[in-house]
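Researcher: Please predict.
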Amino acid sequence: MIADNSVSGREQSQPARLEGRAAAPLPGRGAGAQHGVRPGMPRGDQVLTTRVGLLIPDLLTFDDWQQAGRRLAGVVDSSSWWLGDWMAYGKEHYSDRYQQGIRTAGLQYQTLRNYAWVARRFDMDRRRARLTFQHHAEVASLPPDEQDQWLDRAEASSWTTKQLRGALREAKPTGGTPAATPVHRLPVPGDHFERWHQAAERSGIEVEEWVLTTLDSAAESVLAAAAEAAALTQEQQPAIEQADPPAQP
């Protein structure tokens, strides 16, 4: 079993207290050997976490090593929820300064924005501790009742995220639970996204909504202008033919 200095051993869906020590033991069952340990290394079945890596004893048993991996995977997955909640809180309470906090923490805005979007789609009591953050992300764009239906199926069937994604893709829009709306990704330079974000904040809406609204409006303008030009061309064609009759032989 692993216990680290940054999170308690409670379920990932429960609040965890963050501490600031540089390294802490991740205690196992207490049955590890206590001899043959190099100076500075953990004893027995304890694995130590540090800012730059793990300190693992030479005589760690397979079971303890395996359990350490499970704990570490849980910490990695939970960190997505933690960062998402942190980002959402900062944006709500410090709308004029939260980006400064992100830069000071050395975090990537785009990644945090994605985490926060998923976190806002699921209240704490709707998050499934037996499923990963990515499971939730796969269904985040659906209405809440459909999110719960798919998460219920994923949990009951022990689906991986890949299996859940495949089931969503195969679902028929007209039969049972609708399929998820396809999402298309478009690479955007950072300076462009920053301007869009500022414009969205001034408009008082989320950047996703601002982008969709702006692009839809631009598309409607272009298509309307094209339709008007085509109609004008058709109206002028008979007048041109009448003004320029073919020459007589």
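Model: Residues 207-243 form the longest helix (37 residues).
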